[in-house]
Every structure is written in C-alpha cells, then in structure tokens.
Design brief:
272 residues, alpha/beta, Spore Coat Polysaccharide Biosynthesis Protein SpsA, Chain A, 31% helix, globular, binds uridine 5'-triphosphate
C-alpha cells in the first residue's frame, strides 16, 4: 500500500515577505482556501491519505488548520455558515496527520531526509504546496504520477517546459523520452545558468520517491547555495536509470511568488 505523502513546509517563504513573517506561506489563501489544503486534497485524491508534514517555527497554523476548532464549530453549528467547513472536515476525517520539525533550514533535500522516520521504507509522494497544480483530465497531478509509478516502479518527478528567463530557478533535467510525456532522466542540474542547462524542462513541486532516496540523502554533501539538494540525490538514482520525468497534464502556478499567486487567484476566481 502506498499511502504516505510528505509536505515540506519549513521554508522561510522570503519571496512573500512581509506576509510570511509570522504566517506560513502555505496558509496563504487562493480564494477562501489555503494553499496547503489544495495540496492535501490532491494527495488524498491520489490515495495518499497519511499526510506527513516537515514543519518549522512559525508554522503552527498548519497543525491548527487540520484539527477541530471547537469554539468556532460550537458557535456556527446549526447555521448556514457550517457548510464553509464541510470540505476541511471531510478531509480531516479521511486523512491522518503527522508532524516532525526541521531544526535548521538546510534545503529541500534535508527537509525530505527529516521525514525519514515517519515515512519509513515505503514509496511516498512529496508535494510542495506553494506549487498549486490542477489536473487537466479530472485526475490531479499526484494521481497521474502514481499511475506512472505503478507502471515503472521507480522515482517520478513532475516536469514542465520553463521560459529561458526562469531556467536558473529550477532543477533542469534531460533524458530519453520512452513514452509520450515520460522521460528516463540521465541529467539533472539544480538551478543552472541558462548556458549550462541541458534542456528547458524544469522540475516542479511534485515527486514520487522510492525510499532508498533517504540512504542517498544521508551522505549527500551540500550542493547549489550550500543546501542539501533533492536534485543531487535524484541524480544518483538517475545514474542507474531509476528516475522518470513526467510531463503532467494540467496547470501549475508558482504561488511562492506574488505574480504566480495573483495568476492562480484569477484562474480560480474565473472558474469558480
Ligand atoms: P523554496 O525554495 O520555495 O523556499 O522551497 P522557501 O523558503 O519556501 O521560499 P522562498 O524562496 O524563500 O520564498 C521549496 C519547498 O521546500 C520547503 C519549503 O517550505 C517549500 O515548500 N523547504 C525548503 C523546507 O521545508 N526546508 C528547507 O530547508 C527548504
């Protein structure tokens, strides 16, 4: 059974200061729903209902969001307003939630390694909730990725074409397209200058990882920006042909940036 999904939410969210000074960026709402709830809904729809957060200081609002708020519920119970809580209530009832703290923000790879104890020896999903994704066909991006995993039984990263000006913000990958939209990766470089990028395919915030990734992360030296980079660990799996890039069917918004956040808000408002 594959039921676990890791949510690294310990980052500082500096691109969204001052909003993120005392509030987790994952609690920023797109319309009336926080980013983290969209991410958990996507994981749960893929059957990943054991939700594991790697949190940090100033992130307690996330724990409270996935808990009962007795006072609030008592005060609006029996009124029309109750229906505003029905979505989050049913999510809470269908998932379990575990938390562990990353003590120092040493990078995404380090955050994932911090989740080792709660993940154990299982294949697991990773969702970066500030990348808000909507599937095109009714299947969410994590559901699509689990289908790819079931077929090929190796790590899967979601990728999309990025603009030249954006290349240096992504992990950039290349490899051989073995099926439509599925690429067996042989090169992955974290945030390369444009001239050194092997393609324009960037990794976005959705991963399915096999648990041997933890053994690799444990001995990994810091990479780009002095951080433990998940891309470097994946490169070791890729050198054995065990990582696929998946061009997901759908749309992604970088809600960690003000521009992406506004675009996502407009998109959701237009389709609400
Ligand atoms: P980002 O690169 O978006 O960093 O991290 P950030 O700190 O959240 O945001 P900015 O760039 O300063 O605005 C990608 C994801 O990895 C998590 C973040 O919470 C985010 O979901 N992360 C990153 C950690 O959990 N720990 C880290 O040490 C670094």
């Amino acid at each position: 059974m594959k039921t676990k999904c890791l949510f690294p939410v310990a980052g500082y969210g500096t691109r969204f200061l001052p909003a993120t000074k005392a509030m987790p960026k994952e609690m920023l709402p797109i319309l009336n729903k926080p980013l983290i709830q969209y991410g958990v809904e996507e994981a749960a729809a893929a059957g990943l209902t054991d939700i594991c957060f790697v949190t940090g200081r100033t992130k307690r609002a996330i724990e409270d969001h996935f808990d009962i708020s007795f006072e609030l519920e008592a005060s609006i119970g029996g009124t029309k307003k109750e229906e505003f809580l029905s979505g989050i209530r049913s999510l809470i009832n269908s998932c379990t939630f575990s938390y562990t703290r990353q003590l120092q923000m040493l990078g995404l790879g380090h955050a994932i390694l911090t989740g080792k104890k709660i993940i154990g020896e299982e294949v697991f999903g990773v969702v970066l909730a500030d990348d808000l994704c909507f599937g095109q066909t009714g299947d969410g991006v994590m559901t699509q990725m689990m289908q790819v995993y079931e077929k090929f039984q190796c790590s899967v990263v979601a990728v999309e074409e990025v603009a030249d000006s954006e290349v240096s913000k992504f992990g950039i990958v290349s490899g051989e397209e073995i099926e439509d939209g599925i690429i067996r990766l042989d090169t992955m470089i974290e945030k390369p200058p444009l001239a050194e990028a092997p393609s324009r395919l960037g990794i976005i915030g959705r991963y399915v990882l096999t648990p041997d990734i933890f053994d690799i992360l444990e001995y990994l030296e810091p990479g780009r920006n002095g951080e433990i980079q998940i891309t470097d660990a994946l490169m070791q799996q890729a050198s054995e042909g065990r990582v696929l890039g998946y061009r997901f069917k759908g749309q992604r918004f970088d809600c960690g940036s003000v521009e992406g956040f506004v675009k996502a808000t407009n998109y959701c408002f237009a389709s609400s």
